[in-house]
Amino acid sequence: MYGTRPTRPVQQVPVSTRPVRWTAGPLPWLTAVALLFAAVQLAFVVPGSGLSWDETVYVSQVGGNAPAAYFSAPRARGISYLVAPVAALTTSTTAVRTYLALLSAAALFGALRIWRTVLPTPVLAGAGALFAALWPTLFYGPAAMPNLWCALGSLAATGWTVRILRAVPPGPRRRPEPPRPWRWSP
């Protein structure tokens, strides 16, 4: 029509909808990292550790053996739900710590597993091992505190975001046409 330029046809490139895997079999490496993480927690952190004041507040919300401690606004309600299954069954601190150590190892495995189609296996296993070897990670794994759970949730959410962004097929993006001026034609 008037004032339009002829457009060139866009060359269509076939795009695979399957995610690209760098190497086959990252799950045994991730399983080894998670099992080692759980073993170190159970061997060095869990034995002889009592509950801190903050942990007592979280556990008291779901334990039926004592009145619930004051739960102020900046506390994370999810931690109470996380320890609810074991706190309802027993008053043992060792049982709560063991449960949380195993659960944090499973969460580490799950958060790293999301990245398996994005990163090569050696990078993924190495990053998981380095993260699991940090002292704050080991300390907060069996603790009824939200610190590690926020970090693992962020790791998983970032992995899902990267996977979704990589699934968008590359190609030319068309810019919207500017609005045409209105013309009166009798």
Gross geometry: elongated
> How many helical elements?
7
- SSE order, as H and E? HHHHHHH
Which structural class do you get from the secondary structure elements?
mainly alpha
Structure description:
This protein is mainly alpha-helical and 186 residues long. The chain is built from seven helices and no strands. The protein has helices at residues 27-45, 53-60, 77-87, 93-113, 121-133, 135-140, 147-167. The protein is elongated, with a radius of gyration of 26 Å. The two termini are 19 Å apart. The mean pLDDT is 81.
Summary, kept brief:
The protein is mainly α and 186 residues long. Helices cover 53% and strands 0% of the residues.
Give the arrangement of secondary structure elements.
Blueprint lengths: L26 H19 L7 H8 L16 H11 L5 H21 L7 H13 L1 H6 L6 H21 L19
Helix pairs in contact: 1-4, 1-5, 3-4, 4-7
Features:
single chain; 186 residues; mainly alpha
